[in-house]
Structures are given as structure tokens and as C-alpha cells.
Amino acid sequence: MTIQRIGALTFVVRDYDEAIEFFTQRLQFNLLEDTRLDENKRWVLVAPRGSTGTNLLLAKADSPTQELAIGNQTGGRVFLFLHTDNFWHDYKEMQSRGIKFAETPREESYGTVAVFFDLYENKWDLLELKSSNENQSA
To answer: pTM (2 decimals)?
Structure first.
């Protein structure tokens, strides 16, 4: 049996440097790679601190169709789920760095969650799963 995993998800951005700044400064993600592929294209990978899972590939929009996806990568639904092992710590830290939340945190059957916005207004969940739900998605 082979093992597979999703290594990266494409995140369409307006500008590489503004996206890198947002993810590394405001969300405190690690910049894993920033390699120039040609004069307009770069291979930029970021990931949450301590993550051993899927990375985000920051991909600069290079057509009008791709530009339309910036800020609307999932048609207004929550786009990504940022799991944490300390919701309240991360929530307060994110607020102190100017991350805008769409709601006050709430307790659900699966854990503590609050929706926040990235630099392009995509919706994300900040989520601390209850221990019995660690391997389930919300």
C-alpha cells in the first residue's frame, strides 16, 4: 500500500511580498521556500509554526480569471482550517497583530472556533478540536 498526502494547496495572491509579509508577520507562519522560477514567477511555500502537514503555495495571479479568485477562493465559504492546541492564546495573539475576526469565539461539539479573515478577506477557521475529535474535520 502506498502512502499519499496533500503536500500543498495553492493560495492565489495579488503580490508575493505582501502575502509573505501577512503570513510570516501577522499569522506567524514559517517561510519554507521562496525560489524565483522566472522573472515573474516564484515558488513560495509557507506553513504554520510546528506544522508537519500541508503547506500553502502562494501563487501570484497571472490572468484576469485568477485575479477574480483573490479573496474569493471558495465562493465565500470558510477556506482553510487553522488548527491550534491553544485557542485562546492564538486568538489573543492574532487580534494583537491586527487579524480581523468575523465573530466572537464559540464552543461547538467538536471544539472552540472563530472565523477570521486573511489579507484578501478569505474566511478561515481558527480551531482547537476537542481531543476526541483530533483526527476529524469540522
So the answer is: 0.90
